[in-house]
Specification:
Elements lengths: L8 H11 L3 H19 L1 H6 L5 H33 L3 H6 L8 H32 L2 H6 L2 H12 L8 H5 L4 H19 L17 H4 L13 E8 L5 E8 L11 H6 L3 E7 L9 E6 L2 E6 L5 H4 L3 E4 L16 H10 L10 H10 L5 H19 L1 H6 L1 H18 L47 E8 L3 H6 L3
Antiparallel strand pairs: 1-2, 2-7, 3-4, 3-6, 4-5
Helix pairs in contact: 1-6, 2-4, 4-6, 14-18, 15-16, 16-18
The structure holds heme C (HEC) (5 copies).
Length: 477
């Protein structure tokens, strides 16, 4: 083998030809090369980790890596099959290089494989990292299956958690929940592809990870503050603004003693309850245990033999905060918000009643609502209040736009979601919420009821007053 002449380009190509000298491997080489070339061109997107659109994202971060790895797998598969097909044909065995480092063809082959493998590892590592990261992104979760996730994504963007990735609550840390969620995610992809997913998606979400494992990654119950002042603004049908001022006894243990959180998720506290419905609204039995001391509360007409057949759940954050991120509004609440912001002028005569009527009507599709809601509101002033319309056309148009905006944030006919479809368990005004247990009717055998005193959970500092004195005293108003 004493042939020190520099290898010709033909000889250099030899390993490639050798490796891909069959159809399957050749397809593999084409796939890998094509993916690698695309990768080079799209490198800026990969380095950024973001795609301009959800669909480009699927191509970039899912299709391309799949092609790349499929190609990588096909090359050796092709070689093995090809070898087997040729069997012991002497033609190929004699062409086999001598297994020695001094054999230049073998050396080139090994160097080639080394270089290609190294390059593939670099590209592959980046592709896989980007693919997993992409599947965890808000863009993938919220936008890929556009119709399905639109309601949650829309509400999410207007929530205190709009900077928290979907996976932080829906998957949480650790490998086992990652695998579980990816498996159930596969089922969801199939359901979307077959167009047989639930409309609306039913809640509570089955198999949602226990809230204390996800929420407590960021929120630490021991550190919840003492009290929190809340000012709630409402408008009457005549457009008069009133305010309620509540001091919420958030409570997290420590000096203040019992507060909302200490009572339910404090140290040593465990609350279990039975519910007769899937949505957990009807709760006939509650068990409260604190440091081993137990107390049972039964609803007025509860029968023990019925309760024995019901599902039992241990209370966690989710039993109150079931809408931490997908907080849909009531039409009244949404109008209050828009009127307080001035988008819908409160002093337009009859605006609240008219807007409520229009908002609560059924629309078959988003497109229908988009054309009818603003038109109906304008018509009301044009036809019935012509003088108001002529003087305040801009205010009427702004109100029409505002009404449509708050409808679009809360109602999704394509997913059969309308006002009130999703129950919110915080509070007691719009839904039973806290009063599922704190209704004064859940009593222990010694006659003590789950507390309903109006100052247990909050101090009512003002209720529906035009300008509460307490706010002036605090210097807020
Ligand atoms: C702060 C935590 C949190 C974040 C962030 C979050 N979710 Fe949720 N999500 C929840 C909880 C809690 C529920 C369960 C509601 C229930 O079971 O009643 C839920 C329920 C859902 C549901 C079921 C339908 C519904 O409205 O209850 C969907 C779909 C959903 N989330 C999608 C998403 C998507 C998409 C994102 C990101 C854009 C996201 N979630 C971000 C906490 C979160
Ligand atoms: C990745 C971190 C993270 C996770 C996980 C998380 N949150 Fe939050 N949460 C935040 C941040 C940050 C804020 C503050 C947002 C602000 O002040 O604008 C917040 C605010 C809140 C608030 C106060 C909202 C308000 O009106 O001021 C509540 C309630 C809350 N989270 C509940 C939950 C619940 C329940 C869960 C679990 C389902 C959860 N969070 C999971 C980061 C997180
Ligand atoms: C018994 C019902 C209940 C349970 C259980 C519960 N919370 Fe709360 N939480 C509330 C209420 C009510 C408020 C006050 C809301 C308001 O201000 O209107 C609140 C407020 C909060 C806030 C805002 C605190 C602040 O200072 O503004 C956070 C964060 C929070 N909860 C997180 C959690 C987490 C995490 C868990 C589970 C470990 C949890 N909560 C369990 C009812 C509950
Ligand atoms: C599943 C039933 C259940 C629900 C729902 C529930 N609680 Fe409770 N809560 C209890 C039980 C049981 C106790 C302990 C018995 C008692 O002290 O009255 C308790 C105690 C409390 C206490 C302490 C009362 C005291 O002794 O000073 C507060 C405050 C409280 N709850 C607030 C709330 C708020 C706010 C909500 C709604 C966001 C809520 N609870 C929802 C079952 C519940
Ligand atoms: C078990 C706890 C609890 C008890 C008992 C309780 N509340 Fe509340 N209340 C809440 C919570 C939680 C909210 C919701 C605050 C929010 O919007 O986040 C609330 C909200 C309110 C609001 C404001 C509603 C709004 O939108 O303006 C009023 C008014 C109110 N409560 C009055 C009362 C009265 C009157 C009683 C006595 C019959 C009472 N509450 C008993 C927990 C309680």
């Amino acid at each position: 083998m004493a042939n020190p002449q520099p290898a010709s380009w033909r000889e250099r190509l030899y390993p490639i030809i050798f490796l891909s000298n069959n159809l399957i491997s050749r397809i593999g080489v084409i796939l890998v090369t094509a993916a690698a070339v695309f990768w080079v061109f799209l490198l800026p997107s990969y380095l950024q980790g973001e795609a301009a659109s959800a669909y480009l994202g699927i191509l970039l971060f899912l299709a391309l890596p799949s092609g790349f790895f499929l190609g990588l797998a096909l090359i050796p598969i092709g070689i093995v099959l090809y070898r087997r097909r040729l069997g012991g044909t002497p033609a190929i065995t004699t062409e086999f290089p001598v297994l020695s480092w001094s054999n230049p063809s073998l050396r080139r082959l090994i160097i080639f494989i080394g270089v290609v493998t190294f390059a593939n590892m670099l590209i592959g590592a980046n592709l896989t990292y980007r693919a997993t990261a992409y599947m965890e992104s808000v863009q993938f979760c919220g936008l890929t299956c556009h119709t399905v996730m639109k309601p949650e994504y829309t509400a999410y963007q207007n929530s205190p958690h709009s900077r928290v990735e979907c996976v932080k609550c829906h998957i949480g840390p650790g490998a086992s929940w990652f695998v579980k969620s990816k498996l159930s995610g596969l089922g969801q992809v199939v359901a979307v592809a077959l167009n047989n997913y639930e409309r609306p998606i039913s809640v509570p979400v089955a198999n949602l990870r226990p809230a204390r494992e996800t929420c407590e990654d960021c929120h630490w119950p021991d550190k919840f503050g003492g009290d929190r002042l809340r000012v709630l603004t409402h408008f009457s049908d005549e457009g008069k603004m009133t305010k309620s001022v509540l001091l919420m006894h958030i409570g997290g243990g420590g000096a203040r003693g019992v507060g909302i959180h200490t009572a339910h998720v404090g140290k040593g506290v465990r609350i279990r309850y039975a519910h007769s419905d899937y949505q957990r609204q009807n709760i006939p039995w509650v068990e409260y245990s604190r440091n081993g001391e137990k107390r049972d509360f039964f609803a007025a007409k509860a029968k023990k033999e019925d309760i024995a057949k019901m599902d039992v759940r241990e209370m966690d954050c989710m039993d109150c905060h079931n809408r931490p991120s997908h907080s849909f509004e009531t039409p009244e609440g949404a109008l209050d918000r828009m009127m307080a912001a001035g988008v819908i002028a409160p002093d337009l005569p009859g605006i609240r009643k008219t807007a409520l009527e229009i908002l609560k009507k059924n629309y078959a599709s988003t497109a229908q609502a988009e054309s009818e809601i603003p038109a109906a509101l304008e018509r009301f002033y044009k036809e019935k209040n012509a003088d108001v319309y002529s003087k305040r056309q801009a205010a009427v148009q702004s109100a029409a736009k505002g009404a449509l905006a708050l409808w679009s944030r809360n109602v999704f006919p394509e997913m059969k979601i309308t006002w009130g479809t999703y129950i919110n368990n915080i509070g007691h005004n719009d839904f039973p919420g806290c009063f599922r247990c704190h209704d004064g009717e859940h009593k222990s055998t010694d006659g003590k009821a789950v507390e309903q005193d109006c100052n247990t959970c909050h101090s009512l500092l003002a209720m529906d007053e035009p300008s509460p004195k307490i706010l002036t005293e605090l210097g807020i108003d």
